[in-house]
Amino acid sequence: MTSINSLTTTLMPIYILIILSWFNHLTMSEVCTPDVCNKHGTCIPNNSNSFTCKCDAGFVGSTCNQELDECASNPCLNNGTCTDLENGFLCRCPPEWNGTVCAEPK
C-alpha cells in the first residue's frame, strides 16, 4: 500500500519539471504578454525568459505601475504650492515670488 506522502514525494519533482519545461518553451514575445508593463512602459525581453520594463516618463517600478509624484521632493520654494502633473509639476507662487520653483523675487 502506497502512502500519500510517498506518492507526493515521488510525483512532486515530476510536476515541477513539467512546469519548468513549459516556461523554457516560452518565446520572447510570450514573456511580454499580457501587458506586463501596465500600459505605462515598454516590455523588453531578456535572454533568460524574463523581461525588463522601460517606463514612460512619470511612471516608475519594475512593471511601471507606480505614478511618480514629482511634488514629493517639495520642489517649490518660498511657500509655493506644488501641483503634480502627469509628467512634471507646477508651482503656484506667493505674490512676491516668481519662476518655475518660486525662487525669483518680483
Strand order of the largest sheet: 1-2
How many beta-strand elements? 8
- Output mean pLDDT: 80
Biggest sheet details: 2 strands, antiparallel
Low-confidence stretches: 5-23
Number of helices: 2
Please give the alpha-carbon distance between the first and last residues.
91 Å
State the CATH class of the largest domain. Mainly Beta
One letter per element, helices H and strands E, the order comes to HHEEEEEEEE
| Relative helix content | 10-25%
Oligomer: single chain
Structural class: alpha+beta
Net shape: rod-shaped
The proportion of strand residues reads 25-35%
- At CATH level 2, the architecture of the largest domain is Ribbon
Q: Identify the CATH homologous superfamily of the largest domain.
A: Laminin
Radius of gyration: 25 Å
How many structural units, i.e. domains? 2
User: Do you know the CATH topology of the largest domain?
Assistant: Laminin
Keywords: Disulfide bond, EGF-like domain, Glycoprotein, Membrane, Repeat, Signal, Transmembrane, Transmembrane helix
InterPro entries: EGF (IPR000742), EGF-like_Ca-bd_dom (IPR001881), EGF-type_Asp/Asn_hydroxyl_site (IPR000152), EGF_Ca-bd_CS (IPR018097)
GO molecular function, one term: calcium ion binding
Pfam family, one: EGF
Short description:
The protein has 106 residues and is of the alpha+beta class. A hairpin with a 5-residue loop joins strand 7 and strand 8 (104-105).
Could you characterize what this model shows?
It is a single chain. This protein is an alpha+beta fold and 106 residues long. It has two domains: 4-67, Laminin (Ribbon), CATH 2.10.25.10; 69-106, Laminin, CATH 2.10.25.10. It is 24% helix and 26% strand. It has two helices and eight strands; from the N terminus they run ααββββββββ. The chain has helices spanning 4-24, 28-31; strands spanning 41-45, 51-55, 59-60, 66-67, 81-85, 88-92, 97-98, 104-105. The strands form four sheets. It has a two-stranded antiparallel sheet. The chain has a two-stranded antiparallel sheet with strand order 3-4. A hairpin with a 2-residue loop joins strand 5 and strand 6. The longest helix is centred in the first third of the chain and has 21 residues, at 4-24. The protein is rod-shaped. Mean pLDDT is 80; it is low at 5-23.
